[in-house]
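Retro notes (design track)

What went well: tokenization of the new backbones is finally stable.
What didn't: we kept losing track of which sequence belonged to which structure.
Fix going forward: every design gets posted as structure first, then sequence, in one message. First example under the new rule, 371 residues:
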């Protein structure tokens, strides 16, 4: 009896050894299957609703997404032998719907030098765009496509923008379409070198990631209103360094209607003649401001009685008035003068401060439309 029990145990042990040996020879996966229960997906952990601030970002992006477009541009090259034309890709950027007529706002540098532009809508549809107008001074341009059905972005006001408030940027960095980045307004009234020697003034600085391809896209506040057009980055490496710049919405709202109506932008005029070189020479002699060298007949300057410089019969130069401030903002050179005019629209009343015979005087002028 004991022998039978011994033989049974020996047989079971031998069978177990054979099974383990087979499993070992088949690899660790077989051993695992023999020794471990089958793997199952992990249970999904429930979560609460999104916090209010996250929910706001999600809703703002969803509301604005359809109004943002992807712009690709190309050059047209003509083969000198076959005379056949070929479109060669030039670059890409972003833009957004301005109105129900299909006007698209972007940066001038996005479309500069291009022969054609294609606008891709949020639903994937593409349209060939027509150039309406450009303003290199503010790095803005207007394209037009057939009506899109996409809602125009609501427009905010520059005066309401505060350092520290949350902002959202939507664009197509590096061709990655409809990318959202978030951040805050880092600073206001920044200046960058611009076209034609004039700098871009009054820019919004933000730490929302702005990269190549974001240019022309909207900068939104937390209410989803347009507060700027993303236009430039500061980056030694060429990628986002947390320092991006946007053209303020008040500039956009002032420039775009002129571009749509006339194809170009011109600031209002005061009606004086000046010379930057003469002003620079005067500045070196301690005279700051803009020297009035001439006054156009019937202009705003003539209506308030500004006096130009004149030459006497014996050849002596008699200095005229020197403009030193507009609406309380100091005017030290021609750049200040042009920037001050650019902040206003034709028909606006502004206070002009000027020096006459060494005495400071003021007058209220109504700015004229450009000729």
């Amino acid at each position: 009896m004991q022998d039978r029990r011994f033989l049974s145990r020996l047989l079971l042990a031998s069978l177990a050894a054979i099974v383990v040996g087979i499993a070992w020879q088949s690899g660790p996966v077989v051993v695992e299957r023999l020794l471990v229960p089958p793997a199952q997906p992990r249970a999904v952990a429930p979560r609460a609703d999104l916090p209010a601030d996250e929910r706001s970002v999600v809703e703002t992006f969803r509301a604005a997404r359809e109004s943002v477009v992807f712009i690709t541009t190309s050059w047209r090259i003509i083969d000198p032998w076959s005379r056949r034309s070929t479109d060669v890709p030039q670059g890409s950027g972003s833009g957004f719907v301005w109105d129900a007529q299909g006007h698209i706002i972007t940066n001038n540098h996005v479309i500069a030098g291009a022969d054609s532009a294609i606008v891709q809508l949020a639903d994937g549809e593409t349209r060939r765009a027509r150039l309406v107008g450009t303003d290199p001074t503010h790095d803005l341009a207007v394209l037009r496509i057939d009506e899109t059905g996409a809602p125009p972005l609501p427009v905010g006001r520059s005066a309401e923008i505060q350092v520290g408030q949350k902002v959202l940027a939507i664009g197509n960095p590096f061709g990655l379409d409809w990318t959202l980045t978030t951040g805050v307004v880092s600073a206001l009234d920044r200046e960058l070198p611009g076209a034609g020697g004039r700098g871009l003034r009054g820019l919004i600085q933000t730490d929302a990631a702005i990269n190549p391809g974001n240019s022309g896209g909207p900068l939104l506040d937390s209410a989803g209103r347009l507060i700027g057009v993303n236009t430039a980055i500061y980056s030694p490496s060429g990628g986002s360094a947390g320092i991006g710049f946007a053209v303020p919405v008040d500039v956009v709202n002032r420039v775009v209607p002129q571009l749509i109506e006339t194809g170009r932008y011109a600031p209002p005029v005061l009606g004086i003649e000046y010379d930057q070189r003469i002003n620079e020479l005067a500045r070196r002699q301690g005279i700051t401001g803009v020297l009035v060298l001439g006054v156009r007949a019937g202009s705003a300057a003539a209506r308030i009685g500004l006096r130009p410089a004149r030459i006497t019969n014996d050849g002596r130069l008699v200095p005229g008035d020197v403009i030193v401030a507009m609406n309380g903002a100091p005017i030290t050179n021609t750049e200040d003068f042009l920037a001050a005019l650019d902040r206003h629209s034709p028909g606006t009343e502004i206070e002009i401060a000027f020096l006459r015979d060494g005495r400071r005087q003021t007058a209220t002028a109504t700015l004229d439309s450009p000729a």
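Added context from the reviewer: The chain is about 25% helix and 35% strand.
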